[in-house]
Amino acid sequence: MPVSINPQVIVVIRFSYLGENGWRLTHGGLEANRKVLYDPARLERRYRLFEALTLPSLLAQTDADFTTAILIGSDFPLAWRQRLTGLVKPLRDARVIALPPMKNFAATKKALDLCTKAPSHVISIRLDDDDAMSVDCIAEQKRLAPMVLDISGVDTPTIVAFNNGLFLKIAEGGNKLFGVIESLPLGIGMGMIAPKGMRPTIFSTDHRQIHTRWNCYTDSVTPHFIRSVHGDNDSGARVYGVEKDYTDAELDQIMATRFPFSRAELLALRP
Prior knowledge:
By secondary structure, the chain is an alpha/beta fold. The protein contains 7 helices and 12 strands.
């Protein structure tokens, strides 16, 4: 029988956070990264994707009982910060958290701690500011958590990940939307269930290697994410697995049942 827990779900989004590590943008250190991250043209592109993909997927969750922690740098330009704060107001429980440059784990851990009010367990979830989760991602994390902890142990940090989803390649010559089943864990919507106050979080380990350190359950059957691929991707945007060539009708069905936007809307996005 599944264990009995009362978890708090916290989704952490690093929105162009200027950290001491975790970026491959330049080799020039913090100042060079600050210049790239806060470039107005780049920020405008990030906001366009956040408003088109990430935010709608959060607002459309079938289970709205979750916290969103949006991590930005303490020197994030004020006008852009105000815009971000306004955008996330419709979310039930969202905080924009500004921190100075820190190591990636320390910064995300601090953001999680500032939002934690869980009675027993925390499900910390990764989401980038240019990707989307399926509308039932939060509900699935909560549904699966007691079952996987029943196997791992109620005090053992355990991962739930989603390997089946869609890639959206955004390019000047036209966008491409196709299915993927990743052979390595993908970070979008990935969560770690752990007792409140425990040090490990979903950011403790690189998401592609997380299955080598923690017990990991992966759903490879149901599409649960959309990853956007574009010129501003910091990490490699390759497929680690197999591609699925859905028909247009199949994609329309996936969009209608799994995500809050249409195939036409995704294909109309511009770089």
